[in-house]
Specification:
With about 500 residues, the protein is mainly alpha-helical. The protein has three domains: about 90 residues, no CATH class; about 280 residues, Fumarase C, Chain A, domain 2, CATH 1.20.200; about 70 residues, Orthogonal Bundle (Ribonucleotide Reductase Protein R1, domain 1), CATH 1.10.40. The chain is about 60% helix and about 5% strand. It is built from 18 helices and six strands. It has a two-stranded antiparallel ribbon with strand order 1-2. It has a two-stranded antiparallel ribbon with strand order 3-6. Strands 4-5 form a two-stranded antiparallel ribbon. Helix 2 packs antiparallel against helix 3, helix 3 crosses helix 18 and helix 9 runs antiparallel to helix 10. It starts with 12 loop residues before the first helix and ends with a helix. About 40% of the residues are buried.
Length: about 500
């Protein structure tokens, strides 16, 4: 909580939301062409790239190119030194450039339109957001892997249909969740590949009679290529690329919501085995002093739901709309701030988990989730038909529950009696053997299949997931370095035009 404020039962949305959003004011008909601070910075880059490309192609004379480039750079410097009235609308920008350069300033707009400027800014915002989201999600995955490393031997209950089903390890669970998050990281990276294609130079939808080099424009702005068809660049691709980003974010939000619910279910028990450590992520009741509310888990679920709702709006705005309409056009079509904050909160929650290993094992012993292994072991050790062993384990469960006994507390004499009544022959396991095969450790660490909770598989999956995380970390670094290099090259080219009228 900001400023060390006491958390009385909840974490406010403002405490979770860390990244500013670019939001439009209702009833502002031009809001879609204004954007916020980041969009204005992208317009500055677009203007620098445009004058460089115009000078390269000889569309403007060296002298005019020099004056326009000088004016673009001067305007950036002047406006960055004072409070700015944020607008990425070129119609708001051009009069300011004219006041510095004169009427020739309008030549900057040769071969382009507000349509392709808008599409370009949207893609630049999307790719910035995707890198932030990949970075935040990777940190959460790394926190899951750290928990898995720590809890390779920690036996915990697992559930199907909301009922305890089988024991596993916390490492196995965390690796499962990390695998799901890794797929979301892959989806975000795949979306980046689609997003990082340049539409600038498409103009309104047919390019123009000016011989602008669209590939040069794309390179100057750090794009990997161009959206080839100009109609597509402005009127189809903005829809499906935004939907692809929204889909990847939405899937991650569903995964995180499921995780939050798994953890939150602990708090229904008088003695949960996994909780949040005391501190800013836990709240207290205003009237019930004994309560410790899992405020961060509730906010994790709430924010996941809000993110999911927001990304649905991307599809709804584009659905049943003619191409070229305003509905789906925005400088920031899938704002990244809430998703980044959600991923950051997930990492904080993971870092604050407290696991009571003994209580988790007691939870497993308190139910009959190892009964599955009885049927398997009878088949493996004594060739007892599986269905016979299954029937025996089921009847044993009924008996134990009726007597309010844990499986390990049922007297061996009763175990043998129940088996003989079903199979018409003595139980082929002595007391120590039966105690062994019905224990949680035997079941959990005796698994044989790929991807199970046995230590060899957990260790193998940890290595693979650490390797995958390292690859993703390198990818993020490479993409950011590539964009930084493009920015540096753009700045150098624009400065050369401002000095000499030529970029090359």
């Amino acid at each position: 909580m900001a400023g060390g404020a006491k958390n009385h039962g909840f974490i406010s949305e403002s405490a979770v939301m860390k990244n500013p959003q670019e939001t439009a004011q209702p009833n502002d008909v031009n809001a879609g062409f204004r954007g916020g601070a980041r969009s204005v910075e992208h317009l500055d880059r677009i203007n620098k790239a445009s004058i460089v490309a115009l000078a390269d192609a000889g569309i403007v004379s060296p002298e005019v190119g020099r004056r326009i480039a000088f004016g673009v750079l001067e305007l950036i410097q002047v406006e960055s030194s004072q409070p700015r009235q944020w607008s990425a609308d070129y119609l708001d920008y051009e009069p300011k450039l004219v006041s510095v350069v004169g009427a020739d300033a309008s030549r900057l707009h040769c071969g382009r339109s507000r349509q392709d400027i808008s599409a370009t800014i949207a893609r630049m915002n999307l790719r910035d957001g995707l890198l932030e989201q990949c970075d935040a999600l990777l940190r959460a995955r790394q926190a899951m892997l750290a928990l898995a490393e720590e809890h390779r031997h920690t036996i915990v209950p697992a559930y199907t249909h909301g009922v305890q089903a089988q024991p596993t390890t916390l490492a196995h669970y965390m690796l499962g969740m990390s695998s799901a998050m890794a797929r979301s990281s892959a989806r975000l990276q795949a979306a980046f590949a689609q997003v990082n294609q340049g539409p600038l130079g498409a103009a309104a939808l047919t390019t123009s009679s000016f011989a602008l080099d669209r590939e040069r424009l794309a390179s100057l702005l750090g794009f990997d290529g161009v959206v080839e068809n100009a109609y597509d660049a402005n009127h189809f691709a903005p829809v499906d690329t935004a939907l692809e980003v929204a889909s990847a974010i939405g899937i991650a939000a569903v995964q995180i919501g499921q995780f939050a619910q798994d953890l939150h279910s602990q708090y229904a028990a008088p003695t949960p085995w996994m909780t949040l450590q005391a501190g800013e992520l836990v709240g207290t009741s205003s009237i019930m002093p004994q309560k410790r509310n899992p405020a961060a888990l509730e906010q994790l679920r709430v924010q996941s739901s809000i993110v999911l709702g927001e990304v649905q709006a991307v599809a709804l705005l584009a659905h049943n709309v003619r191409s070229g309409m305003f509905d789906y056009r925005a400088y920031d079509p899938v704002p990244s701030g809430r998703a980044v904050s959600l991923f950051n909160l997930l990492a904080r929650v993971l870092g604050a988990l407290v696991v009571d290993k003994e209580r988790a094992l007691a939870e497993v012993h308190g139910d009959y989730s190892t009964a599955t292994e009885i049927a398997d072991a009878l088949l493996q050790r004594a060739d007892v038909p599986f269905r016979t062993g299954h029937h025996f384990a089921s009847e044993l469960t009924n008996f134990g529950r009726s007597q309010k006994l844990e499986l390990r507390r049922i007297p061996y004499e009763d175990v043998a009696r129940i088996y003989e009544a079903i199979a018409s022959q003595p139980l082929p396991l002595d007391e120590p053997a039966f105690a062994e095969i019905s224990s949680p450790r035997y079941m959990v660490f005796g698994r044989r299949g790929i991807g199970g909770p046995q230590l060899a598989e957990v260790d193998r999956m940890l290595v693979r997931q650490h390797e995958a995380a390292a690859v993703d970390l390198a990818w993020i670094g490479q993409r950011r370095a590539r964009l930084a290099q493009a920015d540096a090259a753009l700045d150098a080219a624009a400065s050369r035009v401002a000095q000499t009228g030529r970029a090359l």
